[in-house]
Amino acid sequence: MQQRSSAQTVSALRPLQRTTRTEAYLESLQTLERLHRLLLDLIKDEFERLGRTDLTPVQGLLIYNLGTAEVTAGELRSRGMYQGSNVSYNLKKLVELGYVHHERCEMDRRSVRVRLTPAGQEVRDCMAGMFARHAEGLELSGVLDDPPIEAVNLLWRRIERFWSEQIRYIY
């Protein structure tokens, strides 16, 4: 039987490791996708529990991410967890429902700035309460400890930065 050198062994393992790493990356992306859908389901359930049938989960996220700021639709889209093409439509609906106030910018009349109304702030507070309950339950269960959620968030920010750089280099 012929002995392999350590260099041959390492090179023989590389394709397997790459495949395994690719599979792990793809599994992570699928998990992220499922988590986002579950988040929307949790928000939907919370709205149903509160009797808020006029809002969709995506609209709830828009309200939550708007917070106390006054921003443009583009700024809101860049910080949120929803499809960009739906932001304008959902903002229009939120204005009609009285959750968001909008006005044209003085400097650039093409740009519209939006902020929450008192009714929108009430929805945001409900969502903040839901997120706080979830965080408390996760903390008590130990789910956030191994690996620490801070390390997981650091990893996601690194992936986000990598993806952003990939998009910039395409053009």
TrEMBL record:
Pfam families: HTH_27. Keywords: DNA-binding, Transcription, Transcription regulation. PROSITE patterns: HTH_MARR_1, HTH_MARR_2. SMART domains: HTH_MARR. SUPFAM superfamilies: Winged helix' DNA-binding domain. InterPro entries: HTH_MarR-typ, MarR/SlyA-like, Tscrpt_reg_MarR-type_CS, WH-like_DNA-bd_sf, WH_DNA-bd_sf. Residues 25-161 form the HTH marR-type domain. This is MarR family transcriptional regulator.
